[in-house]
Design brief:
The complex is a heterodimer of chains A (341) and B (185).
Chain A (H helix, E strand, L loop, with lengths): L2 H15 L5 H16 L4 H14 L8 H14 L13 H17 L1 H6 L7 E5 L6 E4 L5 E4 L4 E5 L8 E12 L8 E5 L2 E5 L3 E6 L6 E6 L2 E7 L2 E2 L3 E3 L3 E6 L4 E6 L14 E7 H11 L3 E4 L7 E6 L4 H12 L1 E6 L2 E6 L4
Parallel strand pairs in A: 5-6, 16-19
Antiparallel strand pairs in A: 1-4, 2-3, 3-5, 4-5, 5-8, 6-7, 7-10, 8-9, 9-13, 10-11, 10-12, 13-14, 15-17, 18-19
Helix pairs in contact in A: 1-2
Chain B lengths: L18 H23 L2 H18 L6 H19 L10 H5 L8 H5 L4 H9 L4 H11 L5 H8 L3 H21 L1 H4 L1
Helix pairs in contact in B: 1-2, 1-3, 1-7, 2-3, 7-9, 8-9
The chains are: A alpha+beta (341), B mainly alpha (185).
Organism (chain A): Pedobacter suwonensis
Protein name (chain A): FecR family protein
Keywords (chain A): Membrane, Transmembrane, Transmembrane helix
């Protein structure tokens, strides 16, 4: 059906469905449409098909997406934050400028700063190189296991700070020393985790859904946009929260055994419907290798559990599962072929 | 997911606007309004935040104006305008139709979708493959019943452009239905 006819059909339908239209108006358009139909044999059928198309598009199918979204809204209303959170992430540029400004101030004017009561805080950063897992003991006796390719920063006065604040990039397991008077706060990617004394695992790789899983105690997780927190989601042992960036929503769920989330500490790898892109990232961090693969393969998902095995064994499994070919050249793995099953 | 309800937490909500009405309103408005917010701010996460803010303020007021649809779209537009003021140098904002027409959601290919035989679902799978602006116009027109003129104002485009998108959108659907007649039933 050509554009002119479609315009006519749409005009007719709009007028017909508008209760304020007069009978004469409708009749006029009906007549024009009739004229078009009468010009050719197959047009009656065409018009019928088009009207059916119109009818069948009146409502979108309920895909349930709104439900999740509504649940997030409900949570926000229920937990009614004391002050309405402002969408500060809208000013990333301004924030960055402020940070740079503050840094310059720190560097250029630390003498002036010291005249105030504040002491300059020195931050320490520990990094686990690819292929390595390290154990860090913090000044307050909290213990941290850092997964390969992750880093943690903490202030040297952690033990005496009002709030024990640390920053995490990547994945880590925490055993926090109990000290109710001084909450322990982990900032990572786009979430903030607040505890008193517990053990829990945080996954916060860049460009990946952040996850916090609790083994013991109680944990509060909130969304962190440029330093402004949303209402917190509270977690108990064997519960985890995932941050859905698309819906800007923290989703809480129960897990069978929270310990699975910390098995990376013993070199185990655990994948559950994990996209291959992420699998390769995990592998390259754990084995300190570079993975070069066909991009079309990235959408496949892997569900598998590896004990602390050699990279060869991992690749053999992938070979069998996805029908891939691989070659290893120094520190790079080249993967060819492969299809999802 | 929170299982608790809203009831009781906002003591002064008046009767004409209860939880059910609110949820209903959200369910009806979500498909198009979310797309509209994304269209305006070009960011899924921020679009969600805007949407939530608008609905939270409605909930707090406890009432809604007679023309809820027009009100909600205007509220989202205002919020998006403030958003742009806030992020003056917004590199993500693109006005070019062509740039966005490339982005096609290929979550489900039509042939897969045809297999489920649910005509309405299949049609919406196809509609969701239209370029972003066309799809939004289609939703606003067909689902929310906005007129050409109202859509033109909300999207800051001409009435002719609105009509053109709709006609092309319907032509696209018609063509797809014809191409897949056998499977389509």
């Amino acid at each position: 059906m050509d554009q002119e006819t479609w315009k006519l059909v749409l005009e007719y339908l709009a007028v017909k469905e508008d209760l304020s239209s007069s009978k004469a108006e409708i009749a006029l358009l009906e007549k024009r449409l009739r004229n078009w139909v009468d010009e050719d044999d197959d047009r009656e059928e065409q018009l019928e098909a088009v009207l059916l198309l119109w009818q069948d598009t009146a409502q979108p199918p309920d895909d349930g997406l709104w439900k999740e979204s509504f649940a997030g809204l409900r949570e926000q209303i229920n937990q009614a934050p004391v002050k309405k959170f402002k969408l500060l992430k809208w000013w990333p540029a301004a924030t960055a400028a402020a940070i740079i400004g503050a840094l310059i101030f720190f560097i250029a004017g630390d003498k002036k700063l010291l005249t105030s009561k504040q002491n300059q805080v020195v931050w320490t950063t520990k990094t686990a190189a690819p292929g390595k897992i390290i154990n860090v003991l913090l000044p307050d006796s909290s213990e941290i296991w850092l997964n390969s390719g992750s880093s943690i920063s903490f202030p040297q006065n952690l033990k005496h700070a009002g709030i024990r604040m640390v920053k995490l990039n990547g994945e880590a397991f925490f055993k926090v020393k109990r000290d109710p008077a001084h909450p322990f706060v982990v900032k990572s990617n786009n979430i903030q985790t607040r505890v008193l004394g517990t053990s829990f695992n945080i996954r916060a790789w860049k460009n990946y859904r952040s996850e916090v899983t609790v083994l013991t105690g109680k944990v509060a997780v909130s969304r962190d946009s440029a330093g402004t927190q949303s209402a917190a989601v509270h977690l108990l042992p064997n519960q985890k929260v995932t941050y859905d960036t698309k819906l800007a929503l923290l989703v809480r769920e129960n897990v069978e055994d929270a310990k699975t989330s910390t098995e990376w500490r013993t070199g185990k790898m655990y994948f559950n419907k994990t996209p291959m892109e992420d699998v390769f990232q995990t592998i390259s961090r754990k084995y300190a290798l570079k993975v070069v693969s066909d991009r079309s393969f990235d959408n496949c998902e892997l569900t598998a559990k590896f004990d602390n095995v050699s990279i060869k064994e991992v690749l053999r499994t992938l070979e069998l599962t996805f029908d891939i070919q691989y070659t290893i050249n120094k520190q790079t793995i080249y993967i060819k072929g492969g299809r999802c099953n | 997911m929170p299982q608790n309800t809203i009831a009781g937490l906002n003591a002064d909500n008046n009767k004409k606007f209860d939880e059910k009405t609110f949820e209903d309103l959200y369910r009806r408005m979500y498909p198009t309004l979310k797309k509209y917010a994304i269209y305006l701010v070009k960011d899924v996460e921020d679009a969600q935040l805007i949407l939530n803010d608008v609905f939270i303020s409605i909930w707090k007021n406890g009432t809604i104006l007679n023309n809820e649809k027009a009100y909600l779209f205007r509220a989202v537009k205002n919020a998006a305008t403030n958003y742009h003021k806030a992020a003056k140098a917004n590199l993500w904002y693109m006005d070019s139709e062509e740039e966005f027409s490339e982005i096609i959601d290929v979550k489900e290919t039509p042939s897969q979708a045809f297999q489920n035989k649910d005509r309405n679902r299949v049609l919406y799978t196809l509609i969701d493959q239209m370029p972003e602006r066309r799809r939004l116009i289609f939703y606003m027109y067909r689902i929310d019943g906005f007129s050409y003129r109202e859509i033109a104002v909300l999207l800051d485009i001409s009435v002719r452009t609105v009509e053109d998108h709709l006609v092309k959108g319907f032509q696209f659907l018609q063509q797809k239905v014809l191409e897949n007649k056998s499977e389509f039933r």
